[in-house]
Amino acid sequence: MTIPSLPLSNPLVGVALRGALGAYVIYMARKFYADPTGYFRKSLRAMPDVPWLGSLIRAMACFCLWGGCFIVATAIAVQIFGLHGELLAVALVIVAALATWLLLPRQSGFQTEREGQQKQQDPQ
Fold this sequence. Notes:
Largest sheet: none
Strand content: under 5%
Helix content: over 70%
């Protein structure tokens, strides 16, 4: 009888799965950060424009982006380099924060859309 979880105990498979999961979380979080309500507007055409909703989704996307960076950094540090301990936790938080800052889109569609709405409301 074969044990289905046995391939998952391989360190290379573990790193690959964690890296893939982290990369997918980063990919989706960047899309939600760039256009927070875009996904919901596609499926719910008559969605009311609630100003705080976009900011809330962007904050959650930023946290998910940080989480994805943390997953990837943890997989590399623990599985490949064999690092453990309290200093590792602090270093991982700092590395994930820096990676998040570097991966955030500079100009998002959400900001451009809001600026366009403000210009339409205040034609000067």
